[in-house]
Amino acid sequence: MLKSGSAVETVVVGLPWAGTSTTFAILDVLASVGRDWEMLHGTPSQRPAFKARLLSYDGLPYDDPNGRRITPEGRLSDSPEPGLIIVPDLHLDPSAPAPDTFAPIAQWIHDAHEHGAVIASVCSGALLLAETGLLNGIEATTHWAYSDVMSQRFPQVRLQRQRVLVPAGDDHRIITAGGASAWGDLLLYLIARIAGAEEARRVAKIYLIEPHAQGQMCYASLAAGRQHTDQVIANTQAWAAEHYDDRNPVQTMAQTSNLSRRSFLRRFRKATGQSPLEYVQTLRVEEAKQMLETTDAAVDDIAAEVGYSEPSSFRSVFRKHVGITASAYRKKWRSSFRQSGIRLPD
Questions:
Q1: Which end of the chain, N or C, is less surrounded by CB atoms within 10 Å?
Q2: Distances in Å between the alpha carbon of 22 and those of 17, 115, 334?
């Protein structure tokens, strides 16, 4: 349980798959609480709010996903009862099984939670938390690209794909954050919780951290269907990729498959995890996003271009998939790039 008044023993889990930038950003920001704002304003440092260490299962050096040698400060067993555990983002192939070394780490995290620790993850680190069983029956989030595999492997998790930050469980002792950059949202939440809202605001100002108030779906590149070996369905997917603007694409896809409509619908969902209509909608929305980012075409014209005769239907589908309106999406991306000096193609 997190308690104010003394530095919270914090373990950042070191793993060969962990993103090094996120891992050390977490360590650096937590170390700055009560120190850097005071330094900048010429006042004495306060008592540290977090005592954060990078620990791995065996304490040995490891190479990160980019080949950099990382030396942890010790073993997980060196901190038998931490107050806070944070799992960084993990560079994992979504289609591959979990690494064998996950099991003992998951058990250590589970045991620490049983002794009162608050558990948190960033991005795909939620996959390791899910291995502990602690996410079963509660809400959680992960990076949009890992949402499907999370749902498939851990159906008991109440996945909140659109959310950036999800505190859940008894006393909110489990917190999951969405994409890799959501480490900022997570840390501001934890700092406010243990050191106070004013300290969180100070850290946000020092590091220029801004919470992702709109959620993460407006950042997602929508994945249309998972990999599979059903060549018949793959052929219909290839057709849809070129003809998603067709007036009735699902009917033509079924005809292309030479299957009965019922068999086609069943096999398509089994192969891709989506219905044919959901698949086509995903293709259409992804193309619309590209047009909104790179052209000045009217939203209604884009709707027609990607296959919607009724603009209202397009607007509804777009908001469902992306989390914001098409106009808000265009404004977000084009204004952000212009303000940063990056020129988008006309």
A1: C
A2: 12, 26, 27
pLDDT by residue (tens digit) across 21-37?
999 999 999 999 989 88
The answer to whether residue 110 scores a pLDDT higher than 50 is yes
d(CA 108, CA 58): 12
Written as one string, the DSSP assignment of 137-175 is TSEE---GGGHHHHHHH-TTSEE-TT-SEEEESGGG-EE
Distance CA 102, CA 127 (A): 10
Which residue has tokens 């009217």?
298
Measured in whole angstroms, the distance separating CA 91 from the mean position of its chain's CA atoms is 12
* Count of other CB atoms within 10 angstroms of residue 208: 7
Q: Give the pLDDT confidence of 58-83 residue by residue, as tens digits.
A: 999 999 999 999 999 999 999 989 99
Tell me the sheet residues that pair with 140. Answer: 159
For the chain, what is the total number of helices (H) and then of strands (E)? 14, 11
More confident residue, 180 or 129: 129
Q: Which of 341, 50, 17 is nearest to 187 (CA)?
A: 50
Residue pair 83/1 in contact by the 8 Å Cβ criterion = yes
pTM to 2 decimals? 0.67
How far is it, in rounded angstroms, from Cα 315 to Cα 326? 7
